[in-house]
């Protein structure tokens, strides 16, 4: 939905946000580019190099450009929370929190300061209005392979009303083609599929750098019966569903099926033990702004690349919910997000607190 008036464009320094900015200008809006400098020089996103790339694109488009340094707040609210979650035996998904607290909460504040009526970003997602209720809807992108609604389920009605996703109707190939046609410096810039502050994929190293005490928390690897099969160097090195790197010898394939951080135990078992009948969610958000009064039917995605599983979602007090799958779902990991879809419409989501059989 094209807004009328000045638009703040979130520019990360990548090709997606660059094309989003170009489309805002092309639509005749007065654009202002802003980059959030978040994770420092070692990041694969929002680093100083990305700031330079975003500035070059803004200059090419002829729009003003600003940088908002949020590295200290990002370290506290995202990186430290990420490390603490791993030490609690969870597998966090920091991109959800980052999108809510930084890429929208902070940018919405900046938009008001600039007199902008909306924030545009390079997310692959769509927003429209429900013809029956008049409420804003968050909808999956046309390009299913790039859809990013999994990370956006926390957006509320007020934010959706002031958000524009110019790439929602485009494919990734079309985005790169537009960037090349416009001669943008980021047209062929590679993208990372990793968490921005874990550029080499070594989560354990990040946890130990943030919380050095994690290096001295060894424990046991046990089976479901409690038999000790081996030792480990810290629960932060494991996630539910993991098979490689267990350091346990035997003639069976074993997987992490549960992590007991309080006891320092990693529980392993055969693949069949990974199936969960359901999950308990916390911090549940509903796109409509109100929890349903009765259980709802939807497809539930329990990780970004999960195709989703049909389930019943029962809202419970305290922004919680109980999810019951039609069939057991593999590797439902505490700390990850569970996002509810009905067709292309995203109904909401929450953080997995626990799974059950």
Write the layout of secondary structure elements.
Layout: E1 6-10, H1 15-26, E2 30-37, H2 48-61, E3 65-69, H3 71-87, H4 94-114, E4 118-120, E5 125-129, E6 136-140, H5 157-161, E7 163-164, H6 172-182, H7 203-210, E8 219-222, E9 228-232, E10 255-260, E11 265-269, E12 275-286, E13 296-301, E14 309-316, E15 320-330, E16 337-342, E17 345-356
Parallel strand pairs: 1-2, 1-4, 2-3, 4-7, 8-11
Antiparallel strand pairs: 5-6, 6-17, 8-9, 10-11, 12-15, 12-17, 13-14, 13-16, 14-15, 16-17
Helix pairs in contact: 1-2, 1-6, 3-4, 3-7
Note down, in words, how this protein is organized:
The chain has 3 domains: 6-182, Rossmann fold, CATH 3.40.50.620; 217-269, SH3 type barrels; 274-356, Beta Barrel (Elongation Factor Tu (Ef-tu), domain 3). It has 7 helices and 17 strands. The chain has helices at 15-26, 48-61, 71-87, 94-114, 157-161, 172-182, 203-210; strands at 6-10, 30-37, 65-69, 118-120, 125-129, 136-140, 163-164, 219-222, 228-232, 255-260, 265-269, 275-286, 296-301, 309-316, 320-330, 337-342, 345-356. The chain has a 6-stranded antiparallel beta barrel with strand order 12-15-14-13-16-17. A hairpin with a 6-residue loop joins strand 5 (125-129) and strand 6. Helix 1 runs parallel beside helix 2 (48-61) and helix 3 (71-87) crosses helix 7.
């Amino acid at each position: 939905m094209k807004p009328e008036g000045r638009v703040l464009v979130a520019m990360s320094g990548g090709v997606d946000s660059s094309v989003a900015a170009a489309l805002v200008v092309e639509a005749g809006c007065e654009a202002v580019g802003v980059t959030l400098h978040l994770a420092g020089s070692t990041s694969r996103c929002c680093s100083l190099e990305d700031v330079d790339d975003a500035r070059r694109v803004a200059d090419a488009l002829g729009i003003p450009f600003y940088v908002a340094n949020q590295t200290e707040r990002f370290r506290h609210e995202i990186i430290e929370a990420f490390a603490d979650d791993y030490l609690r035996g969870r597998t966090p998904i920091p991109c959800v929190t980052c999108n809510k607290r930084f890429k929208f909460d902070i940018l919405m504040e900046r938009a008001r300061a600039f007199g902008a009526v909306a924030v545009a970003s390079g997310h692959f997602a769509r927003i429209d209005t429900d013809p029956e209720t008049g409420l804003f809807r968050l909808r999956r992108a046309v390009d299913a392979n790039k859809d990013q609604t999994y990370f956006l389920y926390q957006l509320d009605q007020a934010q959706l009303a002031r958000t524009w996703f110019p790439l929602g109707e485009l494919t990734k190939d079309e985005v790169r083609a537009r960037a090349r046609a416009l001669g943008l410096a980021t047209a062929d810039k590679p993208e990372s599929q990793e968490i921005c502050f874990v550029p080499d994929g070594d989560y354990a190293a990040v946890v130990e750098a943030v919380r050095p005490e994690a290096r001295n928390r060894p424990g046991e690897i046990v089976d479901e019966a409690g038999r000790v099969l081996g030792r480990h160097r810290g629960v932060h090195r494991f996630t539910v569903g993991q098979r490689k790197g267990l350091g346990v010898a035997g003639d069976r394939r074993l997987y992490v099926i549960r992590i007991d951080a309080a006891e320092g135990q990693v529980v392993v078992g055969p693949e069949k033990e990974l199936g969960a009948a359901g999950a308990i969610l916390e911090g549940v958000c509903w796109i409509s702004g109100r929890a349903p009064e009765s259980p709802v039917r939807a497809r539930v995605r329990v990780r970004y690349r999960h195709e989703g599983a049909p389930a019943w979602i029962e809202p419970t007090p305290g922004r919680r919910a109980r999810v019951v799958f039609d069939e057991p779902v593999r590797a439902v990991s505490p700390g990850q997000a569970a996002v509810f879809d009905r067709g292309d419409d995203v109904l909401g989501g929450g953080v997995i607190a626990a799974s059950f059989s």
